[in-house]
UniProtKB/TrEMBL annotation:
Family: Belongs to the NADH:flavin oxidoreductase/NADH oxidase family.
Source taxon at top rank: Eukaryota
UniProt keyword annotations, A-Z: Fatty acid biosynthesis, Fatty acid metabolism, Flavoprotein, FMN, Lipid biosynthesis, Lipid metabolism, NADP, Oxidoreductase, Oxylipin biosynthesis
Organism: Setaria italica (Foxtail millet)
Annotated InterPro entries: Aldolase_TIM, OxRdtase_FMN_N, Oye-like
Molecular function via GO: FMN binding; oxidoreductase activity
GO biological-process terms attached to the record: jasmonic acid biosynthetic process; oxylipin biosynthetic process
Name this protein carries in UniProt: NADH:flavin oxidoreductase/NADH oxidase N-terminal domain-containing protein
Amino acid sequence: VVHAPLTRSRCYNNLPGEHVALYYSQRASKGGLLIAESTGVSETAQGYPNTPGIWTKEQVEAWKPVVEAVHRKGGVFFCQIWHVGRASTYDYQPSGQAPISCTDKQITPEVLEDGTVEEFSAPRRLTEDENPHIVNDFRLAARNCIEAGFDGVEIHCAFGYLIEQFMKDSVNDRTDKYGGSMENRCRFALEVIKAAIDEIGADRVGVRLSPYSNCLDCWDSDPDALGLYMIHAMNKLGVLYCSMVEPEGVKVDGKVQIPYKLLHFRKAFAGTFIVAGGYNREEGNKAVSEGYTDLVAYGKWFLANPDLPKRFELNAPLNKYDRSTFYTPDPVVGYTDYPFLDLSSV
């Protein structure tokens, strides 16, 4: 039972505070793997309110007590490092500059459920000689994660953010060595992964992929080939784990059914395989027992149940999650106030 990386927008001034340490320590257990929320690798990596960073000394110091709180409970803690790329606005960028990406194509504005419109600013296309500087930002972030005490890093190559913008052909319209063929489109991702491995070791580097997702206008015409290309390349680099997100589940008789479309990726990957997306206790047990995956990452259920592994062990009832407080900036409500199981009632 893995704690999935969950952006919670509660790291004010890009710094995790005491409430963040409490949140993660509540969810830590002996031997349990927790993956921290997406954490920016540089000033240009930001695109959402109150998300953490790990590019400054101050940020590294702020993460140390959070990591220590998890380790005191016997947990294993990885930090997911990301760059949002074009999923940003001038407001989040240094000196109000344009967000950077592999392209200058803007994300289509989207009307959200509450009627508000999510709009991102027009990006600036990175030049070929700028790309190594971004790769270096990830390398330094990986080093900073280890300095902060994390056991490793997960490189966010999913959900339409910068690395996936390079990888997928709906976005990448480059004509240089970072565009065109699948090999060229994956070049940037693999340079980032290799840089992190060279810095901290392959046994401390995991990767998250979402070949089937179409988040933020980011999809690929051949997701199977893209996923397998990345997996074979990651095998050569010795990547510790691959975390993949299921395509959307379907509901049958009110129950979510997992499509189990990731088996060919799981078979091809040499390291530990983690799945996420729509799993409950029953589906998670089935996926592991049938050899479909090694580990299952839970997001919403782990958020609402700080003692989720214990509840699964006892097959105890679960707290319901409150979607309306997922991203509110309150340091307590919808964050550290979900109750633990009353063991006397079990």
